[in-house]
Fold:
Amino acid sequence: MAQSQLVIQPNVETLAPQLELNNQLAKVVEIEEIFSNCFIPTDRACEYFRWLDELRILKQCGRVVGPRDVGKSRASVHYREEDRKKVSYVRAWSASSSKRLFSQILKDINHAAPTGKREDLRPRLAGSLELFGIEQVIVDNADNLQREALLDLKQLFDESNVSVVLVGGQELDKILHDCDLLTSFPTLYEFDTLEDDDFKKTLSTIELLENYLNQFLFFGLNM
Structure:
């Protein structure tokens, strides 16, 4: 009888350990993604945020200039995320026109009609910024903008009195100068490589995050 029951008893695979392993691995991937995209607040970034705050309060335009990979974009995105309802942030595409740029901004502020003709978009945007409570527009990769788009951004500021900040590489000043617009974005914030103190703080933060991830891997996968 016992032998008969053994023969007909179906095999049951234990899936719980595999499911638990998959869950742990998913958490590891999530932590690694957070780690790769995390923002580390440096003294320079905090100074940059105060500068942006001042432009917003004074309703002035400015420009942010620096080489690639020094944190301009990440700091700007973080600033926007901290005050999404009052700051619009867009990245200009290569050779971006006014129509494309203003459509991006309208879409970013969740305007119901983000597309249309160029001559309609700027007045629509200018009238919407105050209505939507937007206090500042940050345009990243501004050195990609066509001359017409830069001129229209100046006009947008004149019509809305909302701070416009251009973020770009070291060639941005030359582009603005050639368009006779350098004085329209008079205040400059220069991004450069990290100072020694900021560099040490950044390394220390990275080490803490790495230690946390390693501890999670060790204890999580061995539970």
